[in-house]
Amino acid sequence: MRERAISAAIIAAVVIVFFLLGQPWLTFGIAALSLLAAVEVFRLLPAAGFPVTILPGAVLPPILVLAMGLEVVDAGWLAVYVAAVLVILAIDAFRRLEVRDGFLVWMGGSFGATYAAMLAFVAGVLAVAPEVPDDELLGGTFLSAGQTWLLVLVLTVWSFDTFAYLSGRTFKRGRFLNHISPNKTWSGVIGGTVAAVIVAGALAWAAGQWLPGGLLLGLLVAVAGQAGDVAESMLKRTAGAKDSSNLIPGHGGILDRTDSFLFAAPVVYAYLLIVGAR
Fold this sequence. Notes:
The structure is a single chain. By secondary structure, the chain is mainly alpha-helical. The chain has helices at 2-21, 25-44, 60-69, 78-93, 99-116, 120-128, 145-171, 186-206, 211-239, 254-276. It has one domain. The longest helix has 29 residues, at 211-239. The protein is 69% helix and 0% strand. The protein has ten helices and no strands.
């Protein structure tokens, strides 16, 4: 428990430092996380039956993170990234003498390079966030629009995770997808969802957005974040691993800490595209 608390304190300190530094350091930090997460994915895949190697697939996600976070490309280039992943990893798979192994390398590698690259949407939030009016509660601060909406994403996901854990431990009602993740309960899902809806609604309203839209955003982030958590559990369970790595003492790996963001960040990104286009 002490080890876990120390690791959590260090993680919080690092996150705060990068958050306060702002751009481009936030994007550089997210790119580093995507690289580490990709390495963990490519280390899990062989145990799950996909005989992939770390290179070249693991180096592709941070490239997309940098491109989106630094506004080198826009969302339209996501399709180009997916196509490039399929082509590059198909060429890499051609080296396998067994056709089936080559196919598994292509499929597994394409999945890994796309899965870890979803952190690019976290960087994308920084790029597409609409300005927060100065007369709003979150307006007129030292935070940029991107930092403000990144804060909305992080606090919504963290509120879901925290209250899902607390309500799940307290009430322990109803099994939820226990064939994938044995400790999940409906009481945890409901408690986390309520917290995420309240936090996202309040923060979106404080940023000048329509309250019902913020509440809906919280609901969608809760659903997506939970799906991200369960999806990573499915990968680990297939690979026979408890954690994605032992990089963070008491917490597992980078993927274990970012799995919810992989699925939740695209939701916030899409929301910002919609409200920014109004």
